[in-house]
Amino acid sequence: MKRVLWLIPATLFLILPAQAQTPAWEISAGYSYLRAGLDGSSFGLNGGYGSMTENLNHWFGGRLEVNAYQGTEAGKSVSAQTITYGPLFAYHRIKPLTPFAEVQLGAVHANAGYLGISESAWKFALASGGGVDFNINQRAAIRVQGDYLMTAFLSLRQDNVAVSAGLVIRFGQK
Questions:
Q1: Is residue 9 part of a domain?
Q2: Which of 9, 65, 77, 120 has its C-alpha lying 20 to 30 A from 112's C-alpha?
Q3: pLDDT tens, residue order, the chain (174 aa)
């Protein structure tokens, strides 16, 4: 019975009509997949992401994003985490969706075995990409995002691809 009572306000929150307004803040979390590569060989890692965005106006803001991935490569358990921040360019004037593009700088941490490294290490990371928020209403959306992730382990550049999908919750208005 308690679950049913909790679902009523959650459902109302999600089904109210969408508005073309710019939120002051957005928090998002969901599933993320990383296709990591080194010299032509690649492997996939599953994980999750969380992000926080401050929109300064209807087209510009800043986003902090954290990703964590885990999987198996060559029979060894490997993991990687990223933390990046940078400008976000979004268009909040369309009711059904909000397209965006981003460029973020930060760091990547990986454990021994990731791309053949012998010890855990922190390295520079650059993420650029974009996506679309499919607006449910003015307070919630479904985010689909794709990013190019450049890392540099073993003094070599790795060109990685990350795709994510999750829920966005919005607060305030600009």
A1: no
A2: 65
A3: 555 556 555 554 454 444 458 999 999 999 999 999 866 778 999 999 999 999 999 999 999 999 999 998 888 899 999 999 999 999 988 889 999 999 999 999 999 888 878 899 999 999 999 999 999 998 999 999 999 999 998 888 899 999 999 999 999 998
Residue 174: which of 3, 50, 54 has the closest Cα? 54
Assess if residue 114 is contained within a domain.
Answer: yes
7 belongs to a structural domain: no
> How far is it, in rounded angstroms, from Cα 86 to Cα 102?
7
What is the span of the domain harbouring residue 91? 25-171
DSSP 8-state secondary structure symbol assigned to residue 116:
G
The answer to whether residues 38 and 115 touch, using CB atoms and an 8 Å cutoff, is yes
